[in-house]
Structure formats: C-alpha cells, structure tokens
Fold this protein.
Amino acid sequence: MANNRLFVLAGVLSILVLSWYGWGWISSSSKPSPQQLADTALKSPNPQEKERAAVRLAQMEYTAVPEMCRVLQESDVPAVKAAMIQGLAVDRDFNSMDTLLNAMNDPILLVRVRAAGAVQRMLQIEVPGYRPEAPPEERLKAIKIYRAEWEKMRVSPALKNFREKLNQSRQGL
C-alpha cells in the first residue's frame, strides 16, 4: 500500500516537473525575434499591437539596435517612434546618434522631445536654444550645434574606451 502511494506521488511529481519544464520550453521557443517585432511594429493594422511590439523590441536593448533604428526611421506612429528612441537611449547606442539627431527635427512633438532627451543624455550636453516646440528653422540651428559636438565626440578616445567597456559588460567579461 505504501509502495503504491510512493509510485503515485512520484508520478504526480514527474508530471508536474515535466509540465513546468515543458511549458518553459514552449514559451521560450515562441518568443518573437527582433525582426518579427520590427515587422509587427511597422506593418500591423492595429496601432496598439504596433506599440506593444515596439515596446517589446525596445526592451531587447543592444540585441535589437538595427531593428530599432529601422522602425524609428520607417514608422509613422508617434508612440512607436518614441519607444524606439527610448530603447536606443537606454542602450547608449552611439551608432544611432545620427538617427537620433534627425529625430530631433521630426514633425511629431513627442518624437522631438524624446530624441532631444536621448541626445542630451548621451552627449552629456544641453545646447541653449533647442526647444522641441520651436519652428523648424530654430530647431535646425541648435541641431547643427549638437551635430558638431557629436563629430568631436565621435573621434574621441574617451568614447572609444566607453564603448569597449560597454561591450565587455554586455559580454559578461
């Protein structure tokens, strides 16, 4: 009788463990790739689905930078573009600086605000005179200054060292 109970208990535990690991395997294999999320963020007929895909893409950080840049450049949905900017800024992806600088003159105010915050955070400067709500001519003058600062920073040894340390931390070294 005791042996039967042990066999039943062992069987139930086995089923539970297999179910747990099986569910984890199934759910991990169904995670969309950065490419799939980017396609959804750009092509879904549902604006909320586009935004959800963009947020998930932005959370992938440095593993999805090319897709984030593509979505930022191609999307016409303000919340999607804002999510991409946030993802690039959190990741401190200096390779996307030109894209972020371009976004500072986007037709959409939300996008300009997020892009300005990202650029200021990454370059560690704030140019007097840039106001996201200003007319395009005024914004372009300030963006020109940001671009000049970026060109100086782009070739600096300090940025090269920072990028190397960032890459090492990403690789767990």
